[in-house]
Amino acid sequence: ALIATLLFSTTVFSIPFVVFHGIGDKCKHKGVTRFTNLLSNWSDSEGFCLEIGNGALDSWTMPFDKQQTEIACEKVKGMSELKDGYNIIGLSQGNLVGRGVLELCDDSPPVRNFISLAGPHAGIASVPLCKTERWCVFVDLLLDLAVYSKYVQDHLAPAGYIKIPTDIDGYKKGCRFLPKINNEICRNATYKDRFSSLENLVLL
Questions:
Q1: Cβ atoms of 24 and 62 closer than 8 Å
Q2: Cα dist from 84 to 76, 98, 161, 202, whole Å
Q3: pLDDT value at position 180?
Q4: Where is the chain membrane-spanning (predicted)?
């Protein structure tokens, strides 16, 4: 209820929202579906969970700087329901997909409010546990390689926001996503303007 209040208290009418789920999850999973439906009912707004690829596997292996952000951008631009503006709710890693849409997506509908639930906006110091799925063997192999190498950045999504405190130089040189959207290397006024255009930014 708090989220719904924060999202829609400054608007005269309810506007739609999109949810980007976390790593290893899917839009059709019960928890994400229930969350989206509850928020839609509370806010009296139309809500959509936007899936990137196949969900669970691609959330681990599809890089942000190209595929995840581009797919999300095209989906948002193709939704007539969002043409007058919409809100983003990010769950964990899904916040970085939302950030990518907000800052990198040209000619897209305006994002009014951004609510982040446990978003790794400043990076994480290690890769999340991959549980027991069969493809986690592949993830574990990648973890044995240098996290800022081109190969790992191309094949392991969390590598795009791993910020090892003892290797900031390596992070800035090799990490392809988080330093970009956080304006930590080359300052981009467009990214700043788009982020600053939000009516509300809520970080939980």
A1: no
A2: 12, 17, 31, 21
A3: 96
A4: none
Pairing assessment for the beta strands 17-20 and 86-91 based on DSSP bridges: parallel
- Distance, in Å, from the CA atom of 45 to the CA atom of 156, rounded to the nearest integer, reads 34
Do the beta carbons of residue 57 and residue 25 sit within 8 Å? Answer: no
Please count the CA atoms within 13 angstroms of the CA of 133 that sit on its side-chain side.
Answer: 11
> Could you give all domains of the chain from N- to C-terminal order, each with its CATH number?
17-203 (3.40.50.1820)
Please determine, for residue 190, whether its predicted confidence score (pLDDT) is greater than 50.
yes
Q: What is the 3-state secondary structure (H, E, C) of 27-83?
A: CCCHHHHHHHHHHHHHHCCCEEECCCCCCHHHHHHCCHHHHHHHHHHHHHHCCHHHC
pLDDT in tens, 78-110: 999 999 999 999 999 999 999 999 999 999 999
Q: How far apart are CA 50 and CA 199, in angstroms?
A: 22
Confidence of residue 139 (pLDDT cuts 50, 70, 90): low
